[in-house]
What we know:
Layout: E1 5-7, E2 10-12, E3 18-23, E4 33-39, E5 46-51, E6 57-59, E7 67-72, E8 77-82, E9 91-98, E10 108-112
Parallel strand pairs: 2-10
Antiparallel strand pairs: 1-3, 3-8, 4-5, 4-9, 5-6, 7-8, 9-10
Amino acid sequence: QVQPVESGGGLVQPGGSVTLACTAPGFTSNRCGMNWYRLAAGKPREWFSQIRPDGSTAYANSVKGRFTISKDEPKDTVYLQMNSLKPEDTAMYSCETFGACNYRGQGTQVTVSS
């Protein structure tokens, strides 16, 4: 098992969409789950989405209805589809495995601005 790696961040216009990916070798074979967190300037780290080994998902109210988490098990990758983005979604987004795995990625920056 190695550290997860996030990708897909960048600059997005308000109302736009972006998909983040987190690849975590061993994620599937070890039946791990994954949490997504974000850290915005001047705010505490926020948990906002989770996918469990059985595929069930959970979301914070702040993103419910706008973000969708999914996974591709053969690729050991979890995706985060982010729609209807707002300036307040600007943050460093990071993934963290849980269960038999406990690894945190370094994060990818998402900036929502016109």
